[in-house]
Amino acid sequence: PLEDTIVALRPIIPQLPAAWGGLPNSIRLLDPSMHEGEYLHGANTTQREAMGLPLLAFNPDGEPVDIVNHFVNFGWEYVFHCHILSHEEMDMMHAQVVGIAPAAPTNLVFAKMGNGNNRRYELSWMDNSKNETAFVIERSSSSTGPWTTLVTVPSDRLTDGPGTGSRSYTDVIGNPNRDYFYQVYAINVVGDTWDYSNPAFNQILPGGGWPTLTLDSRSQTGPPVPAIAAPSILVGGAVVKNKNSATVSLTWTDNSNNETGFLVQRAYDGGFTSGVVNATLGGNVTTFNQTVARGTTFYYRVHAFNDTTQSDWSNTAIVTTP
Predict the structure, then answer these.
(1) CB contact at 8 A, 55 and 48
(2) I want to staple 191 with a disulfide (CB 3.0 to 4.6 A). Which of 42, 122, 137, 212 is the partner?
C-alpha cells in the first residue's frame, strides 16, 4: 500500500515489412467509454470551483483545468501492465506513447494558373505517410530559398483514415504577377493539443496545457538507420538433465556487426502464439542453454536488435525434449 513504482522505458522501433507502408497513429478519445464532449469524471473544474468543492483536475504544472473528452494523438501506443492480479486490479496499467516521424512526401508539382486577382499556384504532392497530422508548405521567390512557412494544412486522420495518396493545395497570389517556388514536408504532433487556457482560473498560455512532441519528415532525409542482418542456421538439441528436466542447447550464426543483443523466443507452436517465453542476451552471442520440461516439443527463433531497430527472425528450430 502507498508504494510507488517507477519504470524507465526505452522503446525499440520494430523493423516493419515494407509492404505495410508504416503504421497509423493511435488517435482516440481520452476515455473511450464516454461520449465525446462530456466532462471526465470530476473534471468540470469551473463548476466545482463555483460550488466551493475541491478541485480534482490539474495540468502537469499544477494549474486547474476543465477536461472535456476529446480525441488525442497517442502516436504508436502500447499498453503495458502487470499480470499479478492484485496489481492489475489496482490500476498498475499504463500506455507507452512513442512518436514516429512521418515519411517524407514526394513528387511535388506546382504550376501558376489564372489571371489578375485569380492568379494562383496549384500544388500537388504524394503523401507517403500513414501517421502525419499535417503538411507544412513553404514558399520562396528563389529555388534555393530562403524559405518561409506559407501554411500548415491539417491531415485529419479521423475523417481521411490512415493511408497514402495524392494531396493538393491552392495558393492564391493575385496581383502583382510573381514567380514562386515551393517545398512541402510532413509533421506528426503527438500529444494533447487541446487549448486548456482559461484566465478565470489558470495561468496557462493560449493554446497550451500539456506538452507535445512534433516530429517531421525532414529527419527522414538523412542517412538511413543501418539494418541489422538476421541470425541464421538456428539449430537446437536437448539432453536429459534430471528426472523432471532437460537442457535445450541452441546455436546460430551471427550475421550482423551492429547488434547490441539477441532475443531468443520459445513457444509451444510454430506461430509463436502459445506459451511464449523470451530471453534477452548480449551482443556477439551465438549459443543459449535453457532448462525446460521433459517430453515436450518447443519451437525457437532468434532475432538481433540494437538501440534503434531489430532484425527479422531467424529460421525456426523445433526441439523435442527426451
Answers:
(1) yes
(2) 212
| Backbone torsions φ then ψ of 36, nearest 5 degrees | -65, 140
Residue 276's contacts (CB-CB under 8 Å, 6 or more residues apart) are: 265, 266, 267
Q: Is 20 helix (H, G, I), strand (E, B) or coil?
A: helix
Residue 188, all three cell numbers? 506528426
Q: pLDDT tens digit string along 206-249?
A: 988 999 999 999 875 444 566 899 999 999 999 999 999 999 99
Residue 171 contacts by C-beta under 8 Å, 6 or more apart in sequence? 120, 121, 123, 137, 139, 150, 151, 180, 182
Question: Mind listing the pLDDT tens digit for each residue in 255-302?
Answer: 999 999 999 999 999 999 999 999 999 999 999 999 999 999 999 999
Residues 241-261 pLDDT 10s: 999 999 999 999 999 999 999
For the chain, strand residue ranges (E) read 27-29, 71-73, 76-81, 93-98, 106-113, 120-127, 134-140, 148-154, 165-172, 181-191, 212-216, 232-240, 245-253, 261-267, 277-282, 287-293, 297-305, 317-320
Look at the block and give the residue holding cell 503538411.
135
CA distances from 212 to 85, 86, 98, 220, 289 (A): 33, 33, 12, 20, 45
Q: What are phi and psi of 129, to 5 degrees?
A: -115, 150
Q: At 143, list the grid cell.
A: 529555388
DSSP state of 308: S
How far apart CA 223 and CA 101 sit, in angstroms, is: 14
Query: How big is the CA angle at 30 (ends 54 and 101), to the nearest 5 degrees?
Result: 130
pLDDT of residue 79: 79
Q: Is 132 helix (H, G, I), strand (E, B) or coil?
A: coil
Q: Exposure of 184 by Cβ count < 10 A (0-12 exposed, 13-18 middle, 19+ buried)?
A: buried
